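Input set for joint prediction.
Command: fold jointly, output tokens.
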Amino acid sequence: MTRTVYVNGEYLPEHEAKVSIFDRGFLMADGVYEVTSVLGGKLIDFEGHAKRLARSLSELDIRKPMEDAALLEIHRELVARNEIDEGMIYLQITRGAPGDRDFVFPPEETEPTVVLFTQSKPGLAESPAAKTGIKVISIPDIRWGRRDIKTVQLLYPSMGKMMAKAAGADDAWMVEQGAVTEGTSNNAYIVKGNTIITRQLSHEILHGITRAAVLRFAREAQMKVEERAFTIEEAQEADEAFITSASTFVMPVVEIDGAQVGQGRPGPVAHRLREIYIEESRKAAI
Ligand code: PMP
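tokens >
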């Protein structure tokens, strides 16, 4: 089945979808994105993603091209046309294609570029990696200072994943001034006893939609939550570690820079949070 994608008001077979070479997303990474998961053919936390998208656009003074209801309609249409049961919807909005290259923002009337496509991932909820856990390495965080804006400027995170692969690991945690900021494409956590520790919100990290949900569920399940920075050494000595993101949900981390975390197996807290997150998300999906 040929994938149907959405580009600037049209549903097209993927090979017919085109964006201008002058698009600011292409020339300057001048765009933002969102990834929303699909379970059972329904969208997980669409409202959270739509809110963060609006904030990213507003922080960059990119015009919001349509209302949330219209965005939701496109997400649903793509899920239906591509028969997605489990997977993701990728959405990208750029400042548009003014017809030339210039550092100055284009005129007001330039239409933002809007692209959405589906990624089918059967078995997303039953990920084998969740049963064994993943290994991470640490790398310096050399990204820009507004990581709370979800821009398509993903070169360094992409390089970080490659550094992890080269080291025989699965992902990298980024470290700034001695403390972990976040993973290349996820938020980072450690567990000590009944307490979950994750970095506080600021411009230094992306405000994960999964993070917000998982912390809410953790508090509801009487776990303690501490929002503060932690070091790699503290993480290596913790009882458990894990990451969260829209596409991995809650994923246990069992090794950090070659040191085993806890028993070197996924721990009970990460396991429980993953179960709660998937169950509650399925219930609330739209
Ligand atoms: N941090 C970074 C740097 C990310 O790229 C992502 C995923 N896009 C996250 C955290 C997790 O955010 P979310 O839970 O909204 O997917």
